[in-house]
What we know:
Two copies of one chain form a homodimer. Chain A contains 14 helices and ten strands.
Amino acid sequence: MKITTIPTYEDIKRVHEAIAPYINKTPVLTSSSINKISGATIYFKCENFQKVGAFKMRGAASATMALSPEELAKGVATHSSGNHAQAVALSAKNYQTKAYIVMPSNAPSIKRAATEGYGAEIITCEPTLEARETTLKAVVEKTGATFLHPYNNYDVIAGQATCAKELIEEVGLLDVVMAPIGGGGLMSGTALTTRALLPNAKVIGAEPEVADDAYRSFKSGTMQYNTRIDTIADGLRTNLGEYTLDIILKNVDDIITVSEEEIVNAMRLIWERMKIIIEPSCSVPLAAVLQQPERFKGKKIGIILTGGNVDVEGLPF
Amino acid sequence: MKITTIPTYEDIKRVHEAIAPYINKTPVLTSSSINKISGATIYFKCENFQKVGAFKMRGAASATMALSPEELAKGVATHSSGNHAQAVALSAKNYQTKAYIVMPSNAPSIKRAATEGYGAEIITCEPTLEARETTLKAVVEKTGATFLHPYNNYDVIAGQATCAKELIEEVGLLDVVMAPIGGGGLMSGTALTTRALLPNAKVIGAEPEVADDAYRSFKSGTMQYNTRIDTIADGLRTNLGEYTLDIILKNVDDIITVSEEEIVNAMRLIWERMKIIIEPSCSVPLAAVLQQPERFKGKKIGIILTGGNVDVEGLPF
């Protein structure tokens, strides 16, 4: 049963129960040295330990589960060279159907291999957004598979919302809940859950300065577009969608932008002090906390670490 | 009260209780993809999440705790440029006494700063073993501090033994328990605990081929010395001591040596699949398992991951 309006907390609870067999309940970690440095008490929800190495598994499982038996039989399709591709591929496998993944020809061979490893069929296209969309359309027409959008989809958003639900259920009261913003699926889900469970908490998004579509959209109240996307936080190069902008405008208290240098410094801090591998996108909320120490001093903050799929041969340090 | 003969399991239990306030009970992690690749079921005891980022904290806490009030008042001393230095510094701080750490002038400034951060006094010397020992002797004579040897010390060995104790208490029956061998403190402690708790389990050490003093000592039954130490596993360049050789000869079933390439491959596998940061020494036992798949197929194996203090600017991939 598909969710056709902004997900309620009842929707999120139902989705969480339904996808539980297919996701990891990831740990919440703290670091006394990062608390000391930041002056805050930070609870990191570690989706780098999630299946396929990223929170995207939650949304993909939710959207796949929402399909009718007839739709499910025909398979699922998406275009992605990243975590969403692997998440859709594994979800299709879990629900015993086919996944068709359109990937640009310049996608890293390791991501291609991982996606094929889950049994997906890869369709290669030219590395342009237009080619991706045209190729996907052709695949959907030919196979009858259902397109699973990576974030502009209420079932996906309800899936991503289960991450903040686990965080808050484990930690309890928080003053602030933060997530990075790319397409806005995680931010939307995080905001919906936090509003329901912690009505007094602030919901704050974080975004790279050089891909600040969400920040400008939030401040102006209308959709703005990225003019640059040359951020190291490769998961955050995407623009908001119609659904996610709407939810963010209604449920997020503020968005903070951070520089590339701040992102790398925060990433290094998490690697060195917490001994866990996170992708650059994860470190954007911590970078925001460190940028504004007075604002966050003494606060209990929940931060969602989005994933750990990083090429260890191309590190920024 | 110092332990003056090979630690009994009663000693190890007493030490564990005494040092508990000063150490983390580190998690045991598994990886379905590493299990699939190895054909075994592997339980990784994650001492990379230990205080100071390494198991050395256990031994240093144990040895500090064993001092008399008079000794404790005069402080503790050691020579080390690595994890033992930080562990002794933090232990001294915990027991409210002074630490004097002799460090070679070429020690990485980050390690020096970390050790000073715990309040230790650093005494710099020429980067030779002779200069380290001479300088340490002068420091001990001048201050009256007690020298805490990094491994040839029964209190240290009893401390390191608490790591396998936590692992076995959490996981239960294991067919094999493995640790890497440098000076042999962790291997000795691991062997003593495993013999006591799991008399039917095999205790297997793993060592780099290019620093195989323990392998050759084990096979010949007499102390052999490293002629080369140019291994990436920087924690394993040390030679066995008299106490650790004795315990290893009596309690270890086998030692496997692995190539540098096998070490790097196993390290990368843990980074990429488990999303945790480990130092190269940690990956030596997994490299041994992957080298001999038939031997370990279907076995339940406990492996101690020793630490996570690695320079992220100098990675081998």
